[in-house]
Structure formats: structure tokens, C-alpha cells
Write a structure and sequence with these properties.
The chain is an alpha/beta fold and 458 residues long. The chain has a single domain, classed as Glycosidases (TIM Barrel), CATH 3.20.20.80. It is 26% helix and 17% strand. A hairpin with a 2-residue loop joins strand 14 and strand 15. It comes from Mollisia scopiformis (Conifer needle endophyte fungus).
């Protein structure tokens, strides 16, 4: 999108902004097409008074090229793909990376017109937590980009939810990242509230790591309301057709998460070890699962060289693959349960997990928001760095990193780090791979271990 159009969008947004009595901005939607915003009650999503189940696909055309691009800023591609979303019968797409310096009105309005919501990752490959050095990468440069993405999408009524991260913790050995993942959730929730936006759910997408996925779920749902995630999402590839509710282990998933106090859904699913006929759809939207799960997103819309694509895209031409037909039929054949589908109306916090050989988190303390990022709560984040910015993962300095821990709900530093020397110690940025790239690299391994297809590094 040209800069003049982006500036026009900023002017329009400014003209639609008022000020509440508290001094916080009250931002009106700039989208011309509106849908009913999705809300959270207990462990489920709702569209008005009706239970809402995510029926969707993961959407990042070009993700297999290794070069990030923003599909929501590409109005032409968006218009090309929406008719296929409609044919699939979906109501949600997940996008892994967007350019927060661009305007997204055209595509978001068109999606809303089609009744389609957006689950959006706020990270990009350059602006994300670095699992090899979470302390340095949790800095004000990173948070400015995250908050700018919130600004870019908070005014659309079909923005369903924000994801604070995707598979940051992807092994038994890097659970030390958890406090930083949770701090980002806290910061995003505070930013949304302080900037006067509607209450947009914020959560996290977890890797299928048996040793810590459920522990992480408890951790993200423990503590005070300002610290807790609004939902939890998992990437799961354990159902490989032909299979069943019990053979796949999904019955164990339901058992393990029964009583979990916030919405839970599958942010990626769709094993490709055998032909995908999407038998799991009949279970996912059945009462055997809907008391715990709120649907899910199939990986993925476009073929990116990894075998997961529902369609093949060649320029302006979209060719549905066999998987597309199977998924469309599966969605059409399985209606949602009547009523609330067994959902709970209460949202109970869990007990924070204790340190163990599988959980490298000593206590419930969270890092305080970096003081250099606190100003964004009142002033706004400003223009985002986009996809071509310098990046944030190794941008940490003594001036822009967290200086200690924060009390719940206060944002106040209560313990100062002894490493506050005023000088910057640069470290390796580690792996910074866009979510869809790992599947492209690992496609040849799925025949041996299908679940590796679900691993997606940031």
C-alpha cells in the first residue's frame, strides 16, 4: 500500500478518535463493514449470545518462500481467496505475520462482508521473543512493534483475537521463556485497555510438547486476571487419518483439559502422514469435545512446498487440491451442537506450577515491562516498523530491557536487576524463522514422525 494511502488511514483514524472522561482514547472502528465482535465467557467464545466455534484455516500465502509478506495488506490476493474461504465454509483465518506500517481496511472489510474473523499473530520473524535469549529480546523495540500491530487491527470488529507468540517454547529445555511469554500477554492486555479499545482476547499458541504443554496451559491461566491469558491454543497433529477419537489420543486431550477455565482451540491441525479426509472435524465439533474445545484451524490454506496446502496458487489462479474438497465436505457434514455445547460459564484460574525437571520457572514473578515501553500505554505506539525494520531480537540494552519484576496489576518494578550497568551486551539472535518456514524445511520428515509437521519456529 502506498504511503499516501497509509497516511490517509491515519488521518481517518485520528478524526474518529475521541477522549474518555478518564483521559484514555476512545477509538471508533474505521472499518465500513461490521460483524458482531467475539467475546469470552467462561471457557468459550460467543458471538452475541450464541456460542462461537472457530472453523478456519491458517493463511500465509508465500510463507514457504522464506520471505514474509502481509496477505491482509494485499487487497488483490485477499479478493482472490475469499471466494474459496466461502466454499470451504470457514468463519476464521489465522495469519502469522503482517506489516504493521500498512493499511488493511480493504481486506478486513471484505473478510467481514464474508463473515470471516481474524486470529492474528503479533510477532514477525524479526520482531519476536528469542527463545535462546528471552531477557534481551523482551525489550521496548519489540513491544513497540507488538503494540503497533494491535493499533493496526484493534478497530476492526472481525479481529477475533491476538496471539502473543507461536511455539516460543518448543522443547523441554526452554521453559525458562515462559515468564516472558506471559509478560507479553499481560502487556498486550494492558495496552488494549489503556488505549480504549474493546476487549479483544489475547492468548498464545503452544507447541505439541508432551512434557510441558499442559504445564504451560496452567501457567498462562494462573495468577491475577491482568496476568492470565484470555485463551490458550495448541498446535496438534496427532490425528492422522484413518483414526478415531480414542486412537488419536484426542479423548485424553479432552480429559486433561476438562475444567480448564479459559477457551481452548487448535491453532493448527491436519496430519499429512496419510491422505487427509479430515475425519477429525466430526469429533472437534461434537459434544465429546465442545465442552472443552472451541474448534480449530487447519494448516494450511496454500501449498508452500510442504504438502499441507489445501489449494495451489499460481499468480491469480487458485487450484483446489483434494484436501480442499475433503475439508469442505467435512465442515458441511458436521454442524455445531445446539445450545452452549457443554461450555462452562465460569472462568477459574489454575494453580501456578512449581519448578521441576520439566518446568524451569522458579516462582510466579513476571518481568516488569521495560520502562522505555511504558510510555506507549499513554501515548500510543506510533508507526510500526513493518516487515523490513531492523528487528528487535538482539536490540536489547540496559536502557530498553526489563529492569526487574513487577507486582501483579501494577507494572511497578519491585526488584532491580544487578546487571543494570548502563551498557549493552549484545548476544546471538538465535533462530528467527517465520512460523511457516519450518514446515517447508521439515516436510520430508512427516512420513517418519507426523507431529514434526506441527513444529513452527518463530
Amino acid at each position: 500500500m502506498k504511503q499516501s494511502l497509509f497516511l490517509t488511514g491515519l488521518v481517518a483514524a485520528a478524526l474518529s478518535t475521541g477522549v474518555a472522561a478518564s483521559g484514555s482514547p476512545v477509538v471508533k472502528p474505521r472499518a465500513t463493514t461490521t460483524v458482531t465482535p467475539i467475546t469470552v465467557t467462561g471457557n468459550a467464545f460467543y458471538q452475541g449470545s450464541d456460542r462461537f466455534y472457530i472453523r478456519g484455516v491458517d493463511y500465509q500465502p508465500g510463507g514457504g518462500t522464506g520471505v514474509e509478506s502481509d496477505p491482509i495488506a494485499n487487497a488483490t490476493a485477499c479478493a482472490r481467496d475469499i471466494p474459496y474461504f466461502t466454499k470451504l465454509g470457514i468463519n476464521t483465518i489465522r495469519v502469522y505475520a503482517v506489516d504493521n506500517s500498512k493499511n488493511h481496511d480493504t481486506c478486513m472489510n471484505a473478510l467481514a462482508e464474508a463473515g470471516i474473523y481474524l486470529v492474528l499473530d503479533t510477532d514477525t520473524s524479526k520482531y519476536s521473543l528469542n527463545r535462546d535469549d528471552p531477557k534481551e529480546s523482551y525489550n521496548s523495540v519489540y513491544l513497540q512493534s507488538v503494540f503497533a500491530t494491535v493499533d493496526a487491527f484493534a478497530n476492526y470488529t472481525n479481529t477475533l483475537a491476538f496471539l502473543s507468540g507461536n511455539e516460543v517454547i518448543n522443547d523441554v529445555n526452554n521453559t525458562n521463556c515462559a515468564p516472558y511469554v506471559k509478560a507479553v500477554v499481560r502487556d498486550m492486555k494492558q495496552y488494549i485497555g489503556d488505549r480504549g479499545y474493546r476487549s479483544i482476547p489475547v492468548g498464545y499458541s503452544a507447541a505439541d510438547v508432551s512434557q510441558n504443554q499442559e504445564i504451560l496451559a496452567d501457567y498462562l491461566n494462573c495468577g491475577t486476571d491482568d496476568q492470565r491469558s484470555d485463551f490458550y491454543a495448541i498446535n496438534d497433529y496427532s490425528w492422522c487419518d484413518p483414526s478415531s477419537f480414542t486412537t488419536s489420543g484426542w479423548d485424553t486431550l479432552v480429559e486433561n483439559y476438562t475444567g480448564y477455565g479459559i477457551p481452548l482451540f487448535m491453532s493448527e491441525y491436519g496430519c499429512i502422514t496419510n491422505n487427509r479426509t479430515f475425519e477429525e472435524v466430526s469429533a472437534l465439533y461434537n459434544t465429546e469435545m465442545t465442552g472443552v474445545f472451541s474448534g480449530g484451524l487447519v494448516y494450511e490454506y496454500s501449498e508452500e512446498g510442504n504438502g499441507y496446502g489445501l489449494v495451489t496458487i499460481d499468480g491469480d489462479t487458485v487450484t483446489p487440491n483434494a484436501d480442499f474438497t475433503y475439508l469442505s465436505s467435512a465442515y458441511a457434514a458436521q454442524t455445531n451442537p445446539s445450545g452452549d455445547g457443554g461450555a462452562s460459564s465460569t472462568s477459574a484460574a489454575t494453580t501456578c506450577p512449581t519448578e521441576s525437571s520439566e518446568w524451569d520457572v522458579a516462582n510466579d514473578d513476571l518481568p516488569a515491562i521495560p520502562s522505555a515501553a511504558e510510555k506507549y500505554m499513554s501515548t500510543g505506539a506510533g508507526t510500526g516498523p513493518g516487515l523490513d525494520g531492523a528487528g528487535s531480537q538482539d536490540a536489547g540494552t540496559a536502557d530498553n530491557e526489563s529492569a526487574g519484576t513487577a507486582s501483579a496489576g501494577s507494572g511497578t518494578v519491585t526488584e532491580t536487576s544487578s546487571a543494570s550497568s548502563g551498557t549493552s551486551t549484545k548476544k546471538s539472535a538465535g533462530a528467527a524463522i517465520a512460523p511457516v518456514d519450518m514446515k517447508a524445511l521439515g516436510a520430508f520428515m512427516v512420513v517418519v514422525v507426523s507431529m514434526l509437521g506441527g513444529m513452527a519456529l518463530l
